[in-house]
Amino acid sequence: MTERPRLVVVGAGPAGLAGALAAAARGIGVTLVDAADQAGGQFYRQPAAALGARRPQALHHQWRAWERLRDGLDRHRATGSITHLTDHHVWCVERKPGSGGVTVHALHGPAQEEGVAVRADAVLLATGGYERVLPFPGWTLPGVVTAGGAQAMLKGGLVLPGRTAVVAGTGPLLLPVATGLAAAGARVAALVESADPAAVPRRMAALAARPDKLAEGAGYAARLLRHGVRTVLRHTVVEAHGTERLTAVTVAALDRGGRTGPGGSLLIPCDTLAVGHGMLPHTDLAETLGCTLSGTGVRVDDEQRTDVPGVWAAGETTGIGGAALALAEGHIAGRSIAARLRGAPADPRRWAAAARARTRLRHFYAALDAVCEPPAGWAEQVTDDTLVCRCEEVTAGEVRTAAGTLGACDPRSVKLLTRAGMGWCQGRMCAPAVAALTGCPPLPAGRRPFARPVPLGVLAALPEPD
Length: 466
Ligand SMILES: Cc1cc2nc3c(=O)[nH]c(=O)nc-3n(C[C@H](O)[C@H](O)[C@H](O)COP(=O)(O)OP(=O)(O)OC[C@H]3O[C@@H](n4cnc5c(N)ncnc54)[C@H](O)[C@@H]3O)c2cc1C
Fold this sequence. Notes:
By secondary structure, this protein is α/β, with parallel strands linked by helices. The chain folds into three domains: 6-130 and 280-346, FAD/NAD(P)-binding domain (3-Layer(bba) Sandwich), CATH 3.50.50; 133-277, FAD/NAD(P)-binding domain (3-Layer(bba) Sandwich); 382-446, BFD-like [2Fe-2S]-binding domain (Arc Repressor Mutant, subunit A, Orthogonal Bundle). The protein is built from 13 helices and 22 strands. Strands 3-2-1-7-20 form a five-stranded parallel sheet. It has a five-stranded parallel sheet with strand order 9-16-10-11-12. A three-stranded antiparallel sheet has the order 4-5-6. Strand 21 (387-389) and strand 22 (394-395) form a beta hairpin. Helix 10 (396-403) crosses helix 11 (411-418). It is globular, with a radius of gyration of 22 Å. The site of flavin-adenine dinucleotide has 35 residues, from helix 1, strand 4, strand 8, helix 3 and helix 8.
């Protein structure tokens, strides 16, 4: 009997789940690997089982879609066509040139010190995105969290980050965060969005192509009204106040050029600031494999193939675009992989509906992205004593000195001179800020062989390369 082709999917969010289910349904043996202890990714993040949540759907929308994914995963796990490795943190994907196979290296166990290697014929990278973090005076005070972090506390831990919250920044994520916090009992003192509503009419054609998304936005607006949440547009947070912890934030009006102008400012008392400035794709595994990027995401063709043979990518790793787009891309990738691994020609007519949804959603999110850019002048608000790299405690003043007085003209030199980006997160958090403060383009992650810190013992136990 010939063995069935094998696929490793990295990431069990909407894209990875859709890809795994589509491939498994077509006879591929799938290993689904994820760092989290449950499937769902960011969008369908589930409360820890020990919390015994009776109605987890109360914190979610599009619950039906999640039930279909979850039930499909359970069915395939029962038949053995999908193996789900939870709590496995992938640090590298290795491709053996010529052999066509891949080896996915992960860390497992409570201290993440147990090395695990999974071999397969192809890999689907569905590692999602992460929040763009921009510093401002006071952003390291206890009580200041990212918008997604506040939501993760609520969805995953069933806890509120505080009693009185301000939700601020830019982008669609602010809406579910503000309404979620309010519905769970927090007083949301304000939702502060920096985008300029005047930019919307210019993008109306692309936005109106997804009336369901506009209706979703209207639903959030109605919920904000119901909870009495004040919405402040074209304003940005310029300072978080407090000594031991957050007590208030100052938000200032932005002019048409995205700079704080004479429009005045507001002081809003609060104990929580949930702040988000959009998201960035996770591309480190893809870059290490040599995949080309397009903008900030991994470049893929119509079948979701990267330009490295045997490597597909889907969902927010290819560009930020929401859960529905991740589902469509994952489905297309899974079908393409199944066809290609079986040596059959891939037939795009079979996924025409998903491809149409993908086109419309990509246009929609490109338009939304253009409206929800961080304010042009945000870096000018960052005072010299503001921490930029939290891991290594490097201030904006030190970064500016490295670029100005010491003449560093790329992020690597800034890192060598200041240690910004040398800590645990390896610059994932501070790279956009360092780039904006110095005017240098961010360093591609591809220069790092490891997507996360790896114990020496795990490296020493690896077999000798062929
Ligand atoms: C914090 C946060 C909150 C969000 N909240 C909302 C919301 O309320 N409403 C909304 O419409 N959209 C929200 N989004 C966006 C939405 O979650 C995404 O559009 C959608 O989940 C994208 O699906 P995906 O499968 O591409 O990635 P994700 O859902 O992000 O899934 C990626 C998965 O890959 C895993 N992973 C990543 N790297 C590795 C690795 N090296 N090793 C092992 N596993 C790995 C992660 O654990 C994760 O489970 C949020 C995004 C974030 C980051």
